[in-house]
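tokens incoming
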């Protein structure tokens, strides 16, 4: 089952079970996906919709945004809002693949460098492209970038 179908099924389930918080987050996810669908439409108006890799990117971005918001709310003393952001993160993460551990990230970065034959910082784009193709939604690419730079630099 693709992610879009899975999210739709969970949305219907949340409606039936009257899970207001979960339903709200699932509606936010659905709206973000529809926004990306509209943005990706061609001039001829034909669009098959975004696929699972794009949906994973959307979900990853949503998690990151909520983590930043939760941090800001905590710093501002708004703990109830920080808790709400964290509960949204929990719902969103239900649709993301398991995150790789630090050791696993080290291993896949080493393998990607070896596979691409990267020797200098100029090859960083190829390494990142390979990683994004294989591990979208499983790795924080903001943290991987400096790791690759350190190895190639």
């Amino acid at each position: 089952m693709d992610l879009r179908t899975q999210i739709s099924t969970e949305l219907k389930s949340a409606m039936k079970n009257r899970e207001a918080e979960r339903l709200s987050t699932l509606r936010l996810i659905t709206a973000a996906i529809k926004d990306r669908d509209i943005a990706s439409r061609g001039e001829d108006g034909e669009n098959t919709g975004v696929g699972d890799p794009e949906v994973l990117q959307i979900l990853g971005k949503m998690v990151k945004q909520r983590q930043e918001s939760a941090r800001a709310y905590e710093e501002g003393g708004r703990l109830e809002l920080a808790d709400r952001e964290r509960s949204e993160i929990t719902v969103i993460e239900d649709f993301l693949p398991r995150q790789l551990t630090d050791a696993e990230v080290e291993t896949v970065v080493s393998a990607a460098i070896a596979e691409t034959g990267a020797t200098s910082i100029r090859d960083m784009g190829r390494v990142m492209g390979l990683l994004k193709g294989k591990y979208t939604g499983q790795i924080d690419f903001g943290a991987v970038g400096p790791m690759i730079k350190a190895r190639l630099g």
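note: The first helix runs from residue 3 to 16.
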